[in-house]
Amino acid sequence: MKFLRNFIFPKQTRTKNMAKPETIEEYYASRPFLSARGAGDNIAHFNIFRIGDPDIEDVPVQFGRKNFFKICIISGNSLIHYADRTFEVREHGILFANPQIPYNWEPLSSKQQGFSCIFNEAFFEHFGRIKEYPVFKPGGFPVYELTEGELSAIKGIFEQIMVEKNSEFTFKEDAIRTLVLQLIHNAIKIRPAIITSPEKVSAASRITSLFLELLERQFPLDSTSSEVQLRTPADFANQMAVHVNHLNKSVKEITNKTTTGIIMQRLLQEAKIMLKHTSWPISDIAYALGFEGPTHFSTFIKRQLQVSPSQYRNA
Length: 315
Hints:
Strand content: 15-25%
CATH topology of the largest domain: Jelly Rolls
CATH superfamily of the largest domain: Regulatory protein AraC
CATH architecture of the largest domain: Sandwich
Number of domains: 2
Number of strands: 10
Helix content: 25-40%
Largest sheet: 6 strands, antiparallel
Radius of gyration: 20 Å
């Protein structure tokens, strides 16, 4: 397995309207040919489908966040637009999508085959820590290219999930959870993250985890009236009731990055998403991300990307 190449593609491949995250109920409402039994954002839900099934219509996936997780394998040339990156699947690929990151899938060839499963966080309540896996972490690589052998092994797990989903086994949901975790574990073993082994929990790791959670909670920004409230290490330290020096030391120890650097990188990622996938005025984006004004925002973007916000938007 290897990372797929990621590109910047022409603007016509993207959408300019980024609505609120799609719910599971809205997902099924746009696909009335699918069974939505037991669907609901506050109800534990899981479903699996075959991509390329003649009985299932091909509905375009709009770019945006979804209120559910998705894992799918794809055979066939396609593009996956994920946050501010675009990945090309040439032959076989696997996608891990989470509710925090906007994405969509754009088929390039007429023949697309594979499997797709969707589930919400409630489905894994008290059963593993689904959000802690590297494949679902913001900033990671969610799309990988698969060899024929890797495709065969992972496809076999999807087939087992399909069998369990259609069975009358009393504990089939537990069996499905186990298989989904097996799917994730197999992918991580094929392409290990920098840190995949459990580490001894320390005060520094707990503080860093809370910091990262507070940072992610501020996104997405769904309207121009939304605004990032925590932008500096001191803001986070005050919220967490710790000294800012203690926060900075803990974050550096665990991530080998500065607190400010992590905050700025996350703001940059959100800025790139908003510039490419919304029609918001640049001044509104600047204020929503907590900048003092468009000038400060423009300086930040130029320093990071070597182009102005408008040049990046129109590239």
